[in-house]
Design goal:
The protein contains no helices and eleven strands. It is an all-beta fold.
């Protein structure tokens, strides 16, 4: 009959620990992202995305202000997670459309087309 051994709290368990990164490790640089406005008031223009959080809307509190009555004061939020941006609808009146489909939240990919009211953007990832 085999005896089953259980670990007690006082026992130390060897763990793998990395004190420093190997010399060959090179972190991936953050890429420059942008929204290229292709339709709507103020187009054409490009908006560089460098902040980790960004509000799009027509209100004075918006980080990316769009002068259109079809865009809510706080229409959508862009969030940067690692090296990707996500978009989230902030309960806007006219919604957020990604490549023609209405979405509440989505991860953006290079070349995606965003529509907020009468304003259309193309999302570009840097290289």
């Amino acid at each position: 009959m085999a005896v089953k051994r259980t670990q007690t709290i006082d026992e130390e368990v060897p763990q793998t620990m990395m004190n420093r990164l190997p010399a060959s490790f090179k972190p991936r640089p953050r890429r420059a992202h942008q929204l290229e406005q292709t339709a709507g008031p103020g187009s054409p223009c490009k908006h560089e995305l460098s902040a980790d959080a960004l509000i799009i809307g027509r209100g004075s509190a918006a980080d990316l202000r769009i002068d259109s009555d079809d865009v809510s004061r706080t229409h959508a939020q862009l969030l940067r997670i690692d090296d990707e941006y996500t978009i989230e609808d902030l309960d806007s009146r006219n919604g957020v459309f990604l490549n023609g489909l209405q979405v509440h939240a989505a991860v953006l990919r290079d070349g995606d087309q965003l529509q907020l009211g009468d304003v259309v953007f193309t999302y570009n990832e840097g290289s």
